[in-house]
């Protein structure tokens, strides 16, 4: 995707017969170039923040897509979905225990250990309230999930549900912000 800076540079070089380097410090063209560069930096920063915020959702979808493909791309029962959710919630347990064992006695927990503990507790809390997953109880949704290639826009077409530890299932919407 061409950036604003590249477009502005190209336009100014056409106007000046190919010489963009010979600009006065306070000229209109140099100010246009500066403004375009600042805009591109701001847009890159916003895109990076959005990707970071959406990453947990994408990781969750990828996990469930892989597990459904392993089970033959067939719709699952609530008990099977709960087993997958339990696997997802406790995927960091081994890493947490390993970090915990490496800590010397009497020392405070490391930052990594604290982050893993917070992540595990947040996932467990979400599971008790209602864990957000694609509706893999219907064959149509399983086909949609199987066809997902990683784009964020495609996720809005997939129906979502929330599953609790007690087995309650209710309809849900794709969150526009981060899950946890």
From TrEMBL:
This is Translation machinery-associated protein 16. GO terms for cellular component: nucleus. Residues 1-27 are annotated as: Disordered. InterPro entries: Tma16 (IPR021346), Tma16_sf (IPR038356). It holds the Pfam family Tma16. It comes from Hypocrea virens (strain Gv29-8 / FGSC 10586) (Gliocladium virens). Residues 16-27 have a biased composition (Basic and acidic residues). Belongs to the TMA16 family.
């Amino acid at each position: 995707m061409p950036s604003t800076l590249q477009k502005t540079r190209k336009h100014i070089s056409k106007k000046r017969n190919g010489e963009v380097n010979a600009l006065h410090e306070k000229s209109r063209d140099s100010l246009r170039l500066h403004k375009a560069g600042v805009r591109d930096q701001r847009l890159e920063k916003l895109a990076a923040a959005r990707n970071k915020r959406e990453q947990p959702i994408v990781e969750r979808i990828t996990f469930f897509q892989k597990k459904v493909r392993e089970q033959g791309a067939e719709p699952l029962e609530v008990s099977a979905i709960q087993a997958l959710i339990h696997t997802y919630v406790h995927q960091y347990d081994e890493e947490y225990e390993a970090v915990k064992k490496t800590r010397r006695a009497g020392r405070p927990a490391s930052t990594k250990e604290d982050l893993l503990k917070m992540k595990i507790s947040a996932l467990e809390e979400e599971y008790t309230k209602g864990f957000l997953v694609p509706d893999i109880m219907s064959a149509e949704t399983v086909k949609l999930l199987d066809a997902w290639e990683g784009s964020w826009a495609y996720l809005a077409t997939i129906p979502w549900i929330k599953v609790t530890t007690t087995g309650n299932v209710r309809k849900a919407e794709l969150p526009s912000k981060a899950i946890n």
